[in-house]
Specification:
Blueprint lengths: L2 H4 L26 H34 L7 H13 L2 H33 L1 H15 L7 H8 L3 H25 L3 H9 L4 H35 L8 H10 L3 H29 L7
Length: 288
């Protein structure tokens, strides 16, 4: 035990973590496992609430379908999903859509992060680039589809481009905000200690901006999936969006619901992966 630990450890000053008068091992000592147990209990409660919410949503959907609304019942959707899984259609469509989303999202994020850093760190870059970012933010990516088809043809390129644009615009603004919101005191303190720009950028700006970047990535992922259905209208032969549009022509509601649920599940799983990365990369943040 160090000198600082020994100070105040007498009868009048009990050790930190022990209640006055409580004998050792009698529940008076605060253990490191207590916060872990609290977190585990909180996660368990969250999972229970999630399950209750999903069950209530399905019950409400079933009740609405039984009440006469033009909706397929859950068993009908499950039956159609079984058919599409059995003949391989759902797997092929999901793979095609997932490939487009991942490609567009990865490219959009890879470009957005350095552009956002440059905009936030250098005033000249901000002045040159920000007007164009704000201009294209007011134009929905779906409105770019006619131009993309004319300029890029009808293969995979225009589909991926509009998804890329949706992810890029969401992530670049968040990254930019993360850089400009870095505490100036931290940067000044690093300069006083002799750190150069590269060191400050790597050791101060990047860690402080990471939460903003990951939030922007999550928003960009949602935008990418939201753009997918319209993007797959561009002469697609496979994909969840294509399958839903094709089912619309025949009023095939169960197939449409299978597509919607598949997109939702895939998007949710990808979002959970990003959320897990956020928790691991931002452990230094205080959380509620």
């Amino acid at each position: 035990m160090s000198v600082l630990d020994k100070r105040g450890a007498g009868p009048g000053h009990p050790l930190p973590g022990r209640r006055p008068g409580a004998p050792p091992g009698a529940g008076g000592e605060v253990t490191a496992a207590a916060p872990a147990r609290a977190r585990t209990g909180g996660r368990g409660l969250t999972l229970v609430l999630n399950a209750v919410s999903v069950a209530a949503g399905i019950a409400l959907w079933w009740a609405a379908a039984s009440a006469g609304f033009k909706l397929p019942t859950p068993p009908e959707v499950v039956s159609r999903a079984g058919t599409l899984i059995g003949d391989g259609t759902l797997a092929d469509d999901a793979l095609a859509s997932l490939t487009r989303v991942l490609t567009g999202f990865a490219l959009g994020t890879a470009v957005a992060v350095p552009v956002g850093f440059l905009m936030g760190w250098y005033g000249i870059v901000r002045g040159l680039v920000e007007p164009w970012i704000q201009f294209f933010r007011t134009i929905p990516p779906l409105a770019i589809i006619p131009l993309a088809v004319v300029a890029m043809g009808i293969d995979e390129t225009p589909k991926i481009f509009v998804i890329f644009l949706a992810a890029f615009l969401a992530c670049v603004i968040s990254t930019f905000q993360g850089v400009v919101n870095v505490d100036r005191t931290l940067i000044d303190a690093a300069r006083v200690l002799g750190a150069k720009d590269a060191t400050i950028f790597a050791r101060v700006v990047v860690p402080a901006s990471t939460p903003f970047i990951l939030v922007g990535m999550r928003v960009g992922l949602g935008s990418a999936w939201a753009t997918l259905v319209a993007a797959e209208l561009i002469a697609a032969q496979q994909g969840l969006g294509y399958r839903m549009q094709n089912a619309q022509l025949y009023y095939d509601l169960p197939t449409i619901f299978v597509g919607l649920i598949s997109i939702g599940i895939l998007g949710l799983l990808m979002d959970r992966v990003l959320l897990l990365a956020e928790r691991r990369l931002t452990r230094w943040q205080e959380r509620r």
